[in-house]
Amino acid sequence: MSFAVYASVRKGTTRGFRVDLETGDRLAVQLLIPDTAPANRLASSQLPRVTIIDPRGRRTTMTIDERTPFYEPYSGTSYLYLARVNEAALDGRYRIVVTGRSTTKVPVVIGVGYREVPGQVRG
Questions:
Q1: What is the pTM of this model?
Q2: How far apart are alpha carbons 76 and 71 in whole angstroms?
Q3: For residue 48, is it within any domain?
């Protein structure tokens, strides 16, 4: 199952959520921003930082290493992929933390998963 979490962050703010995965699942996380100014003009060092904390407490910071266009047809929105993680998951709860690094408010989308199927987000 895949889903997306939308947030806006600026320097000094963080947002986060949790994802429960099981052994055999894939940890697939994507960081995107709308392909609109001013966010798409910010330097990588000013874009939000995404940290993934695995069930054992290990922290992985997503490296912004691309600006690949992606058109989302349901909303008619153009995005830029900034970073992706795709690896075997550990059994347990992952925490995803988004931290703002610019005084400019930056809208972000965190995609989790790799295929769309009907599902339900648990609180």
A1: 0.90
A2: 7
A3: yes
Structure-token match 């904390």, residue found? 53
Per-residue pLDDT reduced to its tens digit, 53-73: 999 999 999 999 999 999 988
* Enclosing domain of residue 42: 3-112
CB 93 within 8 A of CB 25: no
Q: What's the CATH number where 14 sits?
A: 2.60.120.380
> Looking at the predicted structure, is the pLDDT value of residue 15 above 60?
yes
Q: Following DSSP, what letter does each residue of 18-61 receive, concatenated?
A: EEEE-TT-EEEEEEEEES-TTGGGS-GGGSPEEEEE-TT--EEE
Q: How many domains does the chain have?
A: 1
Report yes or no on 16 lying in a domain: yes
The span from the CA of 122 to the CA of 35, in Å, is 30
